[in-house]
Amino acid sequence: MIVGMNHFTVTAEDEKKTLDFYTGLLGLKVGHRPDLGFPGAWLYGAGPQAVLHLYFGRPVPEPRTGVIDHMAFTAQRLREVKARFDGSGVKYDLRQQAGAGTWQLFCLDPNGAKVELDFDASEKI
C-alpha cells in the first residue's frame, strides 16, 4: 500500500535561518509550491518530489507537535558536507554505523528538528 515517503513539514521559527540551513548548508533547492493561503516553501533534493515543506509565520504549537524523533536524508560527498558543517559552526555528530558502515551525520536545524544525513560506507572523510 505505501510506496514511499512523501515529505516532512517543519514549522520554521526563523525563515532566513531555516532556509539558509536547508538550502545553503544541506543543498536542498526551493521549488514549486502551490498557493496554500499561507507563507512557506517546498524544498527539493535531486528528484522531482518535494522532500521538505516549511511553514513560515505560523506559531509553533504548544506543546510542540508530534513524536517523530528525526528526519533522515540519503546524501553524497561526505568530505564536502563535513567541510561545510565545519565552516558553518553548526554542531553535528558524525559516526559510522556498526555493521553496515553507513556514515551518519546528526544535527539540529534552527528550529530544533533533528536531521540525519546518511552517506555510503565507501565514502572517506
UniProtKB/TrEMBL annotation:
It comes from the Bacteria. Pfam families: Glyoxalase. Residues 4-120 form the VOC domain. Gene3D superfamilies: 2,3-Dihydroxybiphenyl 1,2-Dioxygenase, domain 1 (3.10.180.10). InterPro entries: Glyas_Bleomycin-R_OHBP_Dase, Glyas_Fos-R_dOase_dom, GlyoxalaseI/FosfomycinResist, VOC_core. This is VOC family protein. The lineage of its organism: Bacteria, Pseudomonadati, Pseudomonadota, Betaproteobacteria, Burkholderiales.
